[in-house]
């Protein structure tokens, strides 16, 4: 199964539709967003993304920072549609029961990784804008 057909199957799955249904409620609730960010961080650290997956872990952490900055109101540049997309994908990511259940060794995380990579490509422009904002914000705060 190639990556595009895997993504198509995930996006059409009941598991992703369920995550998408919850995403709007989460996106409008700071407490839920921060809790989701915490869950994603826990999964990123416990799954142990090593070697070539280190870049994936870095991208996941970037998405968490973007969610936190949006939730706190510090960053106002993320469109609602992109925020809901990020939340839906992260809800799917933290769910242990999805298209390929996470309890299956090695392969269980495949769908999660594929979906996050798809998201990063899909909203890459929004991620780039956030990264630039974050870099400028740190420069201003450091002085």
Could you tell me the radius of gyration in angstroms? 15 Å
Largest beta sheet, briefly? Answer: none
Q: Work out the helix count.
A: 7
User: What proportion of the residues form beta strands (DSSP E)?
Assistant: under 5%
Number of strands: 0
Mean pLDDT: 89
Which ranges are low-confidence, i.e. pLDDT below 50, for 5 or more consecutive residues?
none
> How many structural domains?
1
Structural class estimated from helices and strands: mainly alpha
Shape: globular
Short description:
The protein has 143 residues and is an all-alpha fold. It has helices spanning 3-12, 14-27, 30-47, 54-72, 80-94, 110-122, 124-142. The longest helix has 19 residues, at 54-72.
What is the element layout, followed by pairings?
Blueprint: H1 3-12, H2 14-27, H3 30-47, H4 54-72, H5 80-94, H6 110-122, H7 124-142
Helix pairs in contact: 1-6, 2-5, 3-4, 3-5, 5-6
Describe the protein in words:
The structure is a single chain. The chain has 143 residues and is mostly helical. The chain has one domain. Helices cover 76% and strands 0% of the residues. The chain has helices at residues 3-12, 14-27, 30-47, 54-72, 80-94, 110-122, 124-142. The longest helix is centred in the middle third of the chain and has 19 residues, at 54-72. The chain starts with a helix and ends with a helix. 27% of the residues are buried. The model has no long low-confidence stretch (mean pLDDT 89).
């Amino acid at each position: 199964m190639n990556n595009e057909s895997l993504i198509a199957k995930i996006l059409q799955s009941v598991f992703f539709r369920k995550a998408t249904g919850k995403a709007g409620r989460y996106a409008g609730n700071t407490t839920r967003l921060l809790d989701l960010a915490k869950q994603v961080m826990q999964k990123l650290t416990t799954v142990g993304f090593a070697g070539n997956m280190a870049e994936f872990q870095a991208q996941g952490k970037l998405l968490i920072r973007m969610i936190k900055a949006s939730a706190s109101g510090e960053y106002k540049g993320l469109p609602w549609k992109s925020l809901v997309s990020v939340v839906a994908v992260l809800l799917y990511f933290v769910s242990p029961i999805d298209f390929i259940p996470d309890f299956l060794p090695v392969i269980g995380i495949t769908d999660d990784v594929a979906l996050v990579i798809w998201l990063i490509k899909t909203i890459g422009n929004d991620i780039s804008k956030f990264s630039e904002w974050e870099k400028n914000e740190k420069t201003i705060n450091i002085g």
